[in-house]
């Protein structure tokens, strides 16, 4: 369960981070303000508050949107981490050299092609180290999902605890599992970084 | 009488109070090789960048191959500012090589050259690969297809950049101080590629350069730039051998002293 | 009964504000502990003695990559079995402080690393005791550039306090939930809690940015 929420949550987080970063950098004021509002609201309020809002407030009268705890978990975590990711992506996109844009224009590429063939691959690479931290943050935050009754690791641990009274072993094991999962993310991202950066960072030139 | 392939008419460009291009007029015939020299800050690079639409101009009009680049005819026949679509259409006839190479760091040499033909011209990958291989051979990098920019020397990177620009089959090539970022011993390999290009193709070339020797031997015409306009122009023999203007003479002797 | 009910919101405001005092207490107290403990951890990690630096590094890595929630569960549910009884509030403050101490430790480390080598060499050349060296020479230089980063963790900590509601600490989020389960109205209390955090964290972030600006202007 933890792994599933982490996986789908990260996917949503990455997509919303890219979209929000683009909106934030857009020259259309309305889009820019929309993105700023999203980023500030989700960064400024507590994740748990957001989860509770989605889980308890949305099903109530004015909205009447009822979602499963699983969906709420993915939506809440994804949008929350996505807002942080948007700031990371914004920095990464802006770190792509101006010359790259000029080269694209000289080759007559459309803005869309320019973004997803040239700018995005470079920005993603620059975003990996801070992005890894955010993914680990996301993994850790899945534990909060237990508070809206989804049976993830943390919730199972509490249940087992109440059933068996082997408190120390259970919580220690839970901590260890989270730690291992975090190391998996770390390792995976480092491998991804190596793959994406093949050929680069070796010579001193450029 | 053939129309010039590039025509600047009364082009003015300002940055705030600073006028970089001042009522500039310039015609370049098809196949002509024009070298632009002059003190730094005189607007040489801005001229090329305006032609590549990297800078918007404030007044005047630039025409490429009988088509206005900065403007387009509106429905009533009057010329209005060109939109992005029109610029993209006309811009396809121009290629540019930058001082700082601007290769795509996440792509190999071959991918760098193939990228735009596939993505912009819509060539199929096989055809684009063949063309890219030919071009890399031509610039003397047949062995380095799979190297990434960071694994190449500055001179090799710049030659890849030339191949990348040529892959778009431009009619006009712009070279913006292409050797300025290179160590002196690497300039030669880039310049000899440009020399061959000039000998084997009927490309129109505009280059901003500080290499007076190369300009003199290679160009059909030299334009001396000063304060945003062409102060003096002529064949290399005229301009280098017998400059008419004091400023030109001043500049040339200063350069000679430095070299 | 449809949209945001202002009179109801007004009615529950005092309750929420009272609970928010707990939130602020936890944040400030926890941050004070975290700032102090983080420094000790950072110095421990930089120690030349491997028996000290390795376990400390491991502890920091471990706490940083496991969830705060489980850590406070651990403090609150495991420790009593070994005779150490903490109130929910104590366990909460301790847990959040330890968690963030590991983050501030990394900030300190970056700050300490940024102090030029020559300063360390000068300290050695003057034969200063380690304590004096840290207190008089190294820390004053290391602290200034990391103040904004520390400030950011204060904001992050504030936003993590609702986690403690899970071990029955009545901070603002728990209070809002209680109101919700009594009145079956969640919209107002939870939205208000959201606003509370938004306003506080935007305010703090603004403060941190000003601090950053002032530090950049100040000569180093």
Task: Walk me through the structure.
The complex is a heterotrimer of chains A (206), B (259) and C (220). In chain A, 78% of the residues lie in helices and 0% in strands. Chain A has eight helices and no strands. Chain B folds into two domains: 6-93 and 172-258, P-loop containing nucleotide triphosphate hydrolases (Rossmann fold, 3-Layer(aba) Sandwich); 103-169, no CATH class. Chain B has nine helices and twelve strands. In chain B, a hairpin with a 2-residue loop joins β4 (59-64) and β5. Chain C has one domain: MetI-like (MetI-like fold). The mean pLDDT of chain C is 81. Chains in contact: A-B, A-C.
What descriptive keywords fit this protein?
heterotrimer, B: 259 residues, alpha/beta, Rossmann fold, 6-stranded mixed sheet, 4-stranded antiparallel sheet, 9 helices, globular, C: 220 residues, mainly alpha, MetI-like fold, 80% helix, flat, transmembrane (chain C), Polar amino acid transport system permease protein (chain C), ArtM/GltK/GlnP/TcyL/YhdX-like (chain C), cell membrane (chain C)
What's the quick description here?
The complex is a heterotrimer of chains A (206), B (259) and C (220). Chain A is mostly helical.
In CATH terms, what is the fold-level topology of the largest domain in chain B? Rossmann fold
- Which outline of chain B best applies? globular
β-strand percent of chain A reads under 5%
**Rg estimate of chain B, integer Å:** 19 Å
The CATH architecture term of chain A is Orthogonal Bundle
The CATH architecture designation of the largest domain in chain B is 3-Layer(aba) Sandwich
Q: Measure the end-to-end span of chain A.
A: 45 Å
What kind of oligomer do you see?
heterotrimer
Mean pLDDT of chain B: 89
The level-1 CATH class of the largest domain in chain B = Alpha Beta
Helical content of chain A, roughly? Answer: over 70%
How do the strands and helices of this protein lay out in sequence?
The complex is a heterotrimer of chains A (206), B (259) and C (220).
Chain A: H1 2-25, H2 29-44, H3 47-57, H4 69-95, H5 98-106, H6 111-141, H7 153-164, H8 167-196
Helix pairs in contact in A: 1-2, 1-4, 2-4, 3-4, 4-6, 6-8, 7-8
Chain B: E1 6-15, E2 18-28, E3 33-37, H1 44-51, E4 59-64, E5 67-68, E6 71-73, E7 79-81, H2 84-91, E8 94-97, H3 109-121, H4 125-138, H5 154-166, E9 172-176, H6 184-200, E10 204-208, H7 212-218, E11 221-226, E12 229-234, H8 236-241, H9 246-258
Parallel strand pairs in B: 3-10, 3-11, 8-9, 9-10
Antiparallel strand pairs in B: 1-2, 1-4, 4-5, 6-7, 11-12
Helix pairs in contact in B: 3-4, 3-5, 4-5, 5-6
Chain C: H1 6-46, H2 50-64, H3 68-78, H4 88-114, H5 117-125, H6 130-160, H7 172-183, H8 187-217
